[in-house]
Amino acid sequence: MIRLGAVRLIYVRELRDQLRDRRTLFTLVALPLALYPLLGFGLLQMTQFLRERPTKILLAGVEQFEGDPTSPLELLDDQGRLRAEFASEREAGLLEIHSDFGSASVQSDAAEPGETEPSAAETSASELRDELARRWIAEGQFDAVVWFPPGFSERLTEYRRKLVERADQPRGTQQPQASPEEGESVPEDATLAPPEPQLYVDTASDRSRIAWSRIELILSRWREAWVQRSFEEVNLPSDVARPFELQTTDVAREQTKKAHLWAKILPFVALIWALTGAFYPAIDLCAGEKERGTLETLLSSPAERSEIVGGKMLAIATFSMATAILNLASMGITGAVAMRHMGNLAAQAGASVPLGPPPLATVLWLIVGLLPISLLFSALSLAIASFARSSKEGQYYLMPLLLVALPLILVPMLPSAELDLGTSLIPIAGMMLWMKALMEGDWYDAVRFAVPVFGITAIGVLLAAQWAVRQFSDESVLFRESERFSLRLWLAHLMRDRGDLPTFSQAMLCGILILVVRFFATFAATMPTSFGEFAIVQTVSLVAFFAAPAALMAVMLARKPLAALKLNVPHWASIPLAVLLAMFIHPAGLLVANFIRQLYPLSPDMLASLEQIDSAITGAPNFFVLLLVFAALPAICEELAFRGFIQTGLECSGRKWLAILASAVFFGAAHGILQQSLSACVLGVVIGYVAYQTKSLFPAIAFHLTYNSMTMIVGVQGAWLLARVPALRFVLRPVVSEYGGTSIEYGEIYTLVATLIGVGILYCFRQYTREESLLTEVRQRYLPKTLLPAVDGSE
Amino acid sequence: MIEVRGLTKEYADLKRGTFRALRGISFDAREGEVFALLGPNGAGKTTALRILSTILSPTSGAVRVNGFDVVASPAEVRRQIGFVSVNTAVYDRMTAWEMVEFFGRLHDLAAETLRERMEALFDSLQMNDFRDVLGAKLSTGMKQKVSIARALVHDPPALIFDEATSGLDVLAARSLIDIIRGIGASGKCVVFSSHVMREVERVSDRVAIMHKGAILAEGSTRELIDRYGQPDLEELFFDLISRQDRGPDRERGAGEAGNNASQEVA
């Protein structure tokens, strides 16, 4: 029973302790308060240096237009500046136009008007132009080059003349259009091809890209001027080119627009600082106390470990929240001042600033979401920091937490990320999206998904807190001594101290190894196109990536490899029971899989890949080969790895459900596709329970084989069976799939009845629990002597 | 008051494999008695006392403090003891008064009782001069006094001192020894560990000599000197340690002295 008074005492002590630490105060309080005003001031200073600079553009090949008023030279006035007709004063100032750079030397003879096929001389001139333009831009002489080809003016005139002629022709006498079946559209008249000035830019250079956008705008205005002239020549008003005008009305309220922008920025800032704010107190309250020798003082007090963790966790959470709120406040105040200043400046210039100061309500909602997230970060930081022997070590250990949390904080910032049931169940990311929804005033979604968002966060907090309590109860963690790592010593230790069964760490290592190999293999393998290829890939990957590592590690790391892989003789009844369990639990399993698919829909690419696999399956020589490849082989290989070596090793921790859940997580993760992983994880818990209760892998293999076989029978042979065995209509039914096509599913009533029977069978497995606990058995029979104290501690 | 029976403690060690820090030691410490564990570094004294104070759990064996088992009722055991160790430091950012008050409140002492006990302790341990000084600014001797006040604040029936004089100067060490003797004389049970012979001789009623996780001899200082025919505790200590290091066969010749050790070390 936790004494709240003791928790409060420890909380207040830790809080006071941290508040008396100048370093903590500086990092968590003074720095954020000073940071944003200083940053704002610095940015304002820097903006004075960040003026828009003019870009240099070469209009090459304009020498041919001397005296031609309708040539590109009409863009420029007598001083060589852009004329007011095509550019504003500001735009003209930002474009430094050069038109006399001696590019005439590379002009080839003017092509005849209407001539579209380039001559050999033209081709070599074109290559020379490319080379020159590339060199000028690379050497920084110009940021962009517009090269007008020889005969540009003549071709332009000719092109316009032919267009006008066509417009004058009566309808019906025009040349027929190319039919769409003949491929891509071609010009109606080959001689109607417009002249093509060449624009050279370097997209790897910012200056060149800016020059590109600027000159493109000017040239498009010049083009519009030509269009206007053309219309005038045929006595058409220029408005003909704009048959309607699109009027856009922004219905967003000014306040909502501001909230929308802040909703993207503030949750990110708040969570990053909440995480940072949890880091340093966690390190100081764990590793720091170890270093200063005060942890042992506290441990010898009557405070229970849960009370110590509770007090410390609340203190860390307080600093985490305070850091985030202080940052938000500082950022908000600086933002408000800066925006007002910019607004005044913009108002003087007749413009408006899209981003105003953050609305107060948005900040308040942020704090509501911040509380559970701070608790989660605090519990995780505390559990991880308890490993560390020193503050320096603590920083190394907490880095992975940052690396895991960052993507979860960043993903909700993507424009496509929205709050729905699926995203609300993702820890941290769900809370980010929930905060964003609230800040944007999306009350409907915020209320609808509050339960899953807070539920998953609460579960995370509870699990993390429980982990932290375990860490504080584990003397091998609290009194860990510094050991220099030596490969020789470690290998000697592995051989000398290996027990009959694998250890917890060896099991974890096996799981991680399988996932890493599987990850790289996914990218190395190509998508099989036939059943034969598919069968080979499936067999090789199952044997090489699952069965072989587990079997090898069992032989090398355990004195009893068979027992390490759980290849024990089970009770005779457990195998038929496992088969029945798989048959009756299968409808519920499919229901869970379908639910997960609805929650997290498959991407079109993934669907295409799965369809490819489906089509490969149809090429199987017969159904039994299919069962062998998809049911028997995975059942044996995956069970050897996950319920065999991994779960057996994890069971040595003495924690039944930790072993079952962790092996199920590895099993799920190995499936690659998220939707499959989640349903496999749920199934893994059931198989893990069967394996644990029976102390044998054989019932687990029987279950897995039957379950996979049922999937193949229902999926591949379901329709065939339904057509031939009418009685099966009570069990199966055809359903139109959301992805198109008809699939076979279990009926609702059968699913309910079968699940109830399945649960009953699962209950029957309880009888296989032996009188003595597994822990006692393991200690007496298998466990390496080196692990005895640790097991005692966990008990 | 404190009963230890067949206490063993094993650690996993990368270099040595399974390391047995305690090899089935047994002893009793009674009320009003100062019981000393004397041994060189690595003898297992700290491990034994950490188990007594429930910071570590035993691998096997039984330990009872005032009738409470350290494994079954660790919280109750912690209420029965005050633990002072070279590793139990004071908080740098708390004053002497705040630190003692914090632990008194963790023991659920009523505010008035706590204040009275603290006043009495600060007077008797002469700590009033530095009661409002932060831990970081206290001298080693002052810190040790704060630790003792922290351990005594809930008036436990048993006190455990693990190498408590380590790092203290001669005057401070002498002062601490006097305090420990006073606590023993007040009727409390005191278990005291040290590797300094003179301290042990001065303070203890009975002594157990430990080496390599085993108790080699146990009794009052006078009894042990008489039993082994050595001139003083120091000579006795060297004699027993050297016999143990020579090996179990020769050690058996030491007669009943090695009972505790020879059973476990063999």
**Rg of chain B:** 19 Å
Unreliable stretches of chain B? 249-266
Query: What is the count of helical runs of chain B?
Result: 11
Order of strands in the sheet with most strands of chain A: 2-1-3-4
Proportion in helices of chain A: 55-70%
Give the low-pLDDT segments of chain A.
Answer: 107-116, 176-187, 770-776, 783-795
Find the structural class of chain A using helix and strand composition: mainly alpha
Rg of chain A, Å, rounded = 36 Å
- Give the integer mean of the pLDDT values of chain A: 81
The main sheet of chain B orders its strands as 6-7-8-3-9-10
Q: State the helix count of chain A.
A: 29
Number of strands of chain B: 10
Averaged pLDDT of chain B, please?
A: 84
Structural classification of chain B = alpha/beta
Number of strands of chain A: 6
Portion of residues within helices of chain B:
40-55%
- Which band does the percent of strand residues of chain A land in? under 5%
Strand content of chain B: 15-25%
How is this fold's topology laid out?
The complex is a heterodimer of chains A (795) and B (266).
Chain A: H1 4-19, H2 22-47, E1 55-60, H3 89-94, E2 95-98, H4 120-138, E3 144-147, H5 152-168, E4 198-200, H6 206-233, H7 254-292, H8 294-299, H9 305-348, H10 360-385, H11 391-410, H12 421-424, H13 429-439, H14 443-448, H15 450-473, H16 475-478, H17 487-496, H18 504-524, H19 531-557, H20 561-564, H21 574-599, H22 604-617, H23 623-651, H24 656-669, H25 674-694, H26 698-724, E5 732-736, E6 742-746, H27 748-764, H28 774-781, H29 788-794
Parallel strand pairs in A: 1-2, 1-3
Antiparallel strand pairs in A: 3-4, 5-6
Chain B: E1 2-13, E2 17-29, E3 34-38, H1 45-52, E4 60-65, E5 68-69, H2 74-80, E6 81-85, H3 96-106, H4 111-124, H5 140-152, E7 158-162, H6 170-185, E8 189-194, H7 197-203, E9 206-211, E10 214-219, H8 221-228, H9 233-246, H10 248-252, H11 259-265
Parallel strand pairs in B: 3-8, 3-9, 6-7, 7-8
Antiparallel strand pairs in B: 1-2, 1-4, 4-5, 9-10
Helix pairs in contact in B: 3-4, 3-5
